[in-house]
Amino acid sequence: MSLRYTLAALGVGALLAPLTPALADHHEDAQASSAAEAAVMQAMQRAAAVSAPHRRLAEMAGTYEATMNSWGDPEAPPMESTLQVRREMTMGGRVLEEHWTGQVMGMDFHGMGRTGYDNVTGRYWSTWTDNNSTGLFVSYGDWNEEKGMFVFHGDAIDPVGGGKIPSRMISTFPDENSETMTMFQEMGGQEMKTMAARIVRSR
What is the spatial distance between Cα 84 and Cα 203, in angstroms, rounded to a whole number? Predict the structure, then answer.
């Protein structure tokens, strides 16, 4: 190799030398970015997946008849109502939506609820609204595998004073076609039963 070509080669090498670490760093940054994007995608897929808790909710889909007793005064006899309940899975099998219709206190009643399971928090959530209110009742709960029941907690809003009313809801399943739902609320610092419903599948 002539001196001229040798010097030329050395010159090119000198120009490329500072670029080599930069190219390596760029490659590593690209790999890191790709790995981070893949991790985000996997997390989003896990968050959106239909999981065992959603399939548990799907077992509750169907048409039911509910006999509901409610108490305004724990010392007084309960008020009884018969309601029709329709439940179906929505959002691609992720959310159980239910509609309750009938008459309560001689007036037409329509209530709508949604129950889902959040894969991220690992908890069930529930919302409820009906034509006796303009608010939204939100509660969060868990499934007790040993006892075979759901337990939810939330705060209702007192329509008179505007304060929060701590509420606890329990659902048990005597068999695959029936459910017993009970609500307890804190009144005057004491918890009392305010609602109990027997829900039986009609088809």
Answer: 12
Amino acid 43 reads: A
- Beta strand segments in the chain, E: 62-70, 79-90, 95-104, 107-118, 123-130, 137-144, 149-157, 164-175, 178-187, 190-201
Tokens of 108: 């037409």
Taking the CA atoms of 22, 27, 32 and 37 in sequence, report the sign of the dihedral they define. positive
- Taking the C-alpha atoms of residue 79 and residue 140, their distance in angstroms, rounded to an integer, is 27
Residue 66 burial by Cβ neighbours in a 10 Å radius (0-12, 13-18, 19+): middle
Structure tokens at 194: 């305010």
Residues in contact with 180: Cβ distance below 8 Å, sequence separation at least 6, in sequence order: 171, 172, 173, 174, 196, 197, 198, 199
Task: State the residue for tokens 């609204």.
Answer: 129
Distance CA 138, CA 2 (A): 84
pLDDT digits (tens, 9 = 90+) for 82-107: 999 999 999 999 999 999 999 998 89
CB 181 within 8 A of CB 168: no
The pTM is what?
Answer: 0.81
Alpha carbon separation from 194 to 18, 79, 113, 146, 185 (Å, rounded): 77, 10, 18, 26, 7
Percent of the chain past pLDDT 90, that is, above it, reads: 69
Look at residues 89, 202, 78, 81 and name the one whose alpha carbon lies nearest to residue 132: 81
